[in-house]
Amino acid sequence: MRALARRVAASAPRKRCRRACVGPTRPHAAQVHFPFPAYGNKLLAEALGQAVDEGLCRAVGVCNFGADGMQELHGLLAQRGVVLATNQARVGPACGR
């Protein structure tokens, strides 16, 4: 069961990039909306790296990752030669930041 879950999680970013490609265009960045603690950053880095390697997107990013998770993912992607381009986070008076 765990192996199946890993395959599904690893294929999701690539499938989303493929759906976003229309004609000769491709998305500039694939962005993961939140961390997936059940799978970990290693699997996420693998999937995002494959999407870049396959030419499905030009860059990768994340949303709502904490500093530690973002730095870990950055390091894992860097090992593959992929840059973590963005970390979108909500900021403002209501956020306490």
Overview of the molecule:
The protein is α/β, with parallel strands linked by helices. It has one domain. The protein has 3 helices and 3 strands; from the N terminus they run H-E-H-E-H-E. It has a 3-stranded parallel beta sheet.
Q: Please tally the helical runs, counting DSSP H or I stretches of 4 or more residues.
A: 3
Taken together, the total number of domains comes to 1
Return the structural class.
Answer: alpha/beta
Strand order across the largest sheet: 1-2-3
Radius of gyration: 14 Å
Main sheet makeup: 3 strands, parallel
| Morphology call | globular
- Mean model confidence by pLDDT: 77
Please estimate the helix content.
Answer: 40-55%
What is the count of β-strands?
Answer: 3
Strand/helix succession: HEHEHE
Question: Which regions have little confidence, pLDDT < 50, spanning 5+ residues?
Answer: none
The fraction of residues in strands falls at 5-15%
Instruction: Note the gap between the termini.
Output: 40 Å
